[in-house]
């Protein structure tokens, strides 16, 4: 579902037939990009198909692409190959005269949808009613819609990604005494664990229940309120998968994304963002073995790019929304770029979301 107030790309006047040869589609995309030069910039998330990432001017995780979007001074057209919340962030950080496009408007994020604005506002009202909101800093994971980022911005909070979440927690505790973390409970839990916060002060807030299912004392004593939300791609992985990988590939290094459960993170050798895991593989010596718990397209691409190493999936887990962006709808977008409907957001959402994103980008 597209958030209220957001316009996103409409299907072009004609669509590319899927029986058209992929090599020809790639060639046409490259030709158009060459014609526009630096006026057209394409951003590709690590979870995109390999053929999409190979066409991108910048590849990276949400944080890297967020920075890239904010630095495209010469670009008139920014095409973001990823899911909706990423494209919204690019729109927030781009200049008003720049145009931002999403090749497939249906590429959303179920986890982002788990923290809707009405639920978030109701939870904040609970905190205000009990005099707790003033000391609470909202921290919103990048994997959230623009309205949640805007709520965070106007309430003194900040956005984080999996690569900088620990630093963001430090900043938030410098500003207040309590964090409410949206929308992924597992990333929040894993960061809290890494900072050795007392477990009884890191509590789960479930918006389906009054006071999030907590007592008044639990709310008041909490250092971190974890919003009940998750990524189905990463909660797929289990400690059994880790055990099986170690048995199948002796000497393997198990890596897991911090959206995985704390049990999986505890069993892994390394936990980090997509870019951090990519760097681990790239920097490893020939013959190194990896089993990685994250989205399968990135793992397949790492195996393709590092044939001197063994790169395995911890278990197959695909993000169907990332997969919605393909060569055909990407070609439709670049071909019709002058007439395609650009991604827009309400001015108030843009303004407040930018506050939260700029606070993140200003952190060392």
> Structural class from helices and strands?
alpha/beta
Total domains: 3
Sequence of strands across the biggest β-sheet:
6-5-7-9-8
Number of separate strands? 13
Shape: globular
Give, in order, the helices and strands: HEHEHEHEHHEHEHEHEHEHEHEHEHEHH
Task: Identify the CATH architecture of the largest domain.
Answer: 3-Layer(aba) Sandwich
Task: Work out the radius of gyration.
Answer: 21 Å
Number of helices: 16
User: In which range does the helix fraction lie?
Assistant: 40-55%
- The CATH homologous superfamily of the largest domain is termed NadA-like
Characterise the protein shown here.
This protein is an alpha/beta fold and 364 residues long. The chain folds into three domains: 22-108 and 322-346, 3-Layer(aba) Sandwich (Rossmann fold); 112-227, 3-Layer(aba) Sandwich (Rossmann fold); 239-313, NadA-like (Rossmann fold). The protein is 42% helix and 15% strand. The protein is built from 16 helices and 13 strands. It has helices spanning 22-36, 50-53, 62-70, 84-93, 110-113, 117-129, 146-154, 165-175, 185-194, 216-221, 239-248, 262-267, 274-283, 296-305, 327-335, 347-362, and strands at 40-45, 58-60, 77-81, 99-101, 136-141, 158-160, 178-182, 202-205, 224-227, 253-256, 270-271, 289-293, 310-313. It has a five-stranded parallel beta sheet with strand order 6-5-7-9-8, with helices on both faces. α4 links the parallel β3 (77-81) and β4 (99-101). α3 runs parallel beside α4 (84-93), α4 (84-93) packs across α16 (347-362) and α7 (146-154) crosses α16 (347-362). It is globular, with a radius of gyration of 21 Å. The two termini are 35 Å apart.
């Amino acid at each position: 579902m597209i958030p209220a107030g957001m316009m996103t790309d409409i299907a072009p006047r004609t669509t590319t037939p899927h029986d058209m040869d992929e090599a020809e589609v790639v060639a046409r995309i490259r030709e158009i990009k060459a014609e526009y030069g630096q006026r057209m910039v394409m951003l590709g998330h690590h979870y995109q198909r390999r053929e999409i990432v190979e066409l991108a001017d910048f590849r990276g995780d949400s944080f890297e692409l967020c920075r890239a979007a904010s630095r495209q001074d010469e670009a008139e057209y920014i095409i973001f190959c990823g899911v909706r919340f990423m494209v919204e962030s690019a729109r927030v950080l781009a200049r008003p005269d720049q145009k931002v496009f999403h090749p497939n408007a249906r590429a959303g994020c179920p986890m982002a949808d788990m923290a809707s604005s009405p639920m978030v506002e109701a939870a904040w009202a609970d905190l205000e009613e009990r005099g707790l909101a003033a000391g609470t800093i909202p921290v919103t994971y990048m994997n959230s819609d623009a309205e949640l980022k805007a709520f965070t911005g106007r309430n003194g909070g900040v956005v984080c990604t999996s690569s900088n979440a620990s630093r963001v927690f430090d900043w938030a505790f410098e500003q207040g005494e309590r964090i409410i973390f949206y929308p992924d409970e597992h990333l929040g839990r894993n960061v809290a664990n890494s900072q050795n916060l007392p477990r009884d002060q890191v509590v789960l807030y479930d918006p389906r229940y009054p006071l999030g299912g907590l007592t008044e004392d639990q709310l008041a004593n909490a250092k971190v309120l974890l919003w009940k939300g998750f990524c189905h791609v990463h909660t797929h992985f289990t400690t059994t998968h880790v055990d099986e990988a170690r048995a199948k590939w002796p000497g393997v290094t198990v890596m897991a994304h911090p959206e995985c459960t704390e049990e999986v993170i505890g069993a892994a050798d390394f936990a980090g963002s997509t870019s951090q895991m990519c760097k681990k593989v790239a920097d490893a010596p020939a013959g190194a073995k990896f089993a990685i718990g994250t989205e399968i397209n990135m793992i397949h691409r790492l195996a393709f790019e590092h044939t001197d190493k063994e790169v395995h999936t911890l278990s197959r887990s695909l993000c169907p929304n990332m997969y919605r962006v393909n060569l055909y709808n990407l070609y439709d977008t670049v071909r019709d770029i002058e007439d395609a409907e650009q991604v827009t957001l309400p001015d108030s959402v843009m303004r407040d979301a930018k506050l939260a994103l700029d606070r993140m980008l200003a952190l060392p």
